Amino acid sequence: MPHDTQSTTPVVRHAAVADAEAIARIFAGPRAIWGTLQIPFPTAEKWRKRLEEGQNAGIFSLVACVDLEPVGILGLHTHPHEPRIRHAASLGMAVRDDWQRRGIGRQLVQAAVDLADDWLGISRLELDVYVDNEPAILLYQRFGFQVEGTKRRAALREGRWVDVLVMARLRETQVP
């Protein structure tokens, strides 16, 4: 699908169940799958169900849209029913292959950080990222994420075991 990035400004918003087909298209791309822990070829029905269930499970799903079409997704997973880790959240993100390296990921992470800091009172944001996904690692570091450790042989990708970095961003807050 051709696009003119000069005239189109991505908009981040909450994902809707109606976005399921576009989200499935995001994860249909080989580069998007390469950088995530998702299984290739997800169905729109799978995403419909995840979006419906996520709203009640403390998952905030954000999409970055260009001309109303979601081209990136970020899930901010909170723990509203677990008092001892209510201050923490994790995130996972994917950007459609043809929109990677165009600032979509940066916009999604910024929106998630703002939501976590300013509205949810989250003081620990964490994520997993493949050790060889240098663009993503650099992006997360720009937002203050630091490497906390390495999970060896943590995931299977294209028939090979891949190590995963555990990264987190801590924000100083007072305990409520």
Structural summary, described in words:
- By secondary structure, this protein is an alpha+beta fold.
- It is built from 5 helices and 7 strands, in the order E-H-H-H-E-E-E-H-E-H-E-E.
- The chain has a 7-stranded mixed β-sheet, sandwiched between helices.
- The longest helix is centred in the middle third of the chain and has 17 residues, at 104-120.
In short:
The chain has 176 residues and is an alpha+beta fold. The protein is 28% helix and 34% strand. It is globular.
> What general form does the structure show?
globular
Fill in the CATH topology of the domain at 11-125.
Answer: Aminopeptidase
SSE arrangement, N to C: EHHHEEEHEHEE
CATH architecture call of the domain at 11-125: 3-Layer(aba) Sandwich
Strand elements, count: 7
Mean model confidence by pLDDT: 91
CA(first)-CA(last) distance: 49 Å
**Treating each run of at least 4 consecutive H or I residues as one helix, how many helices?**
5
| Helical percentage | 25-40%
The main pleated sheet reads as: 7 strands, mixed
Helix and strand composition category: alpha+beta
CATH superfamily of the domain at 11-125: Gcn5-related N-acetyltransferase (GNAT)
Query: What is the strand arrangement across the widest sheet?
Result: 1-2-3-4-5-7-6
Please write out the topology:
Layout: E1 11-14, H1 20-26, H2 30-34, H3 44-54, E2 59-66, E3 69-77, E4 88-95, H4 104-120, E5 124-130, H5 134-142, E6 146-157, E7 160-170
Helix pairs in contact: 1-3
